[in-house]
Amino acid sequence: MSGPVNGEDVHGSYGEPGHPLPTGPGDSAAPFGDLLYQGTTVEEATRLPAAIPPTAPLAPQSAESLVPSCEPTIELRRGVPAHVGTRPPTYPPYPLGRPSLRDGDPFAALAPVVRLDGSQFGRLTVRAASVRGDSHSWEGGCRQDAMVVTRIGPPEAELLLLAVADGVGSARYSHIGSDRISQVAAMHLDREAENIHAALGARDASELRALASKAVALAAAELRNQWAASPRHQSRPYADADYATTLHVLLIPTDPGICDRVLFSVGDGGLFVLRDGHWENGNPDDSEGLLDTRTEALPHAYRSVKATLLHTVPGEVLLLGTDGFTNPLTQKDPEFARRLADAWGEPKAPSLSDFLWQAQTRAKSYDDDRTVICVWEEGV
Predict the structure, then answer these.
(1) In this structure, are strands 8-11 and 2-5 parallel, antiparallel, or unpaired?
(2) Which of 61, 58, 67 has its CA nearest to residue 22?
(3) Are 162 and 249 spatial neighbours (Cβ–Cβ below 8 Å)?
(4) Whether the predicted pLDDT of 286 surpasses 70
(5) DSSP alpha helix (H) spans, the chain
């Protein structure tokens, strides 16, 4: 149920006929929807005399008399996402145009600008968000990032699978490539789940890489065949480059007794670990000191899968992201990284809506699509 406050819907029983939304002592103040105290509850608002000035002396009233104990408190809306730096980005902070079905690309026209996901698996809590970037929003394009949150394998060898994929901006159908490769790779990894679980228990990095390479190669071959036969290529020959996308897959055993994890990677973006309030890069480093701005991309680079083993302990937060998120996380100015470390360094994971709002924290010059998945593990 909901009732309007200044044109906004506030969930709860307040505002329903016969049960009006309280607006302050004696109902003489402005509605709580006008307060500037972000995240303030109704109970807290009754103790803010500067924000709710009475028009006449009133008999003392307790907060309990205004907010029945059986009713939930009401949280105020957060507003636009926060930004780091002295000035906000030039792009507006809200969704703009989008593709039309008449443009001839149904996938792009029907793709949502935001995807939000999450769940709890025993002591593991997951939050995931994929958001269209400011530049794509301004241009009216679609989100080219994709993500997957699922479980694979039998109960005795079960793994939590988290995947992010970033379609290459210049590739015509990279939004299709990122979405499909993340899903089809997950299905092929599911067929290898028991072998992956055993190799992870043995900490056999070479076997893990072989298993991942096999699954990704099969996924790429399957999709290549599908895409080549697609009607969209009747007038435009199929090319791998049209579907170019990165892919990162993090596998975590759901067995709380196993603290080893494995990351499979193709391309930029990847994994960070929040330890003692600081983000540590968990990505494989094969650069050997050479600067290379190119990135490997699927389906072409199916032989380039890297496997990285890592050991974590409860209290550490794992972050898997596309470069739209990991790039500002590593910028020279630490404000973005510090803000997210403060928000996500708590033992308890945020709500889905809070996580989305935090993941949308803006930084000037970083306008790409951003996808981020975080994992919290409770202690014993």
Answers:
(1) antiparallel
(2) 67
(3) yes
(4) no
(5) 42-45, 63-66, 106-110, 134-139, 174-191, 193-201, 205-228, 323-329, 335-344, 352-359
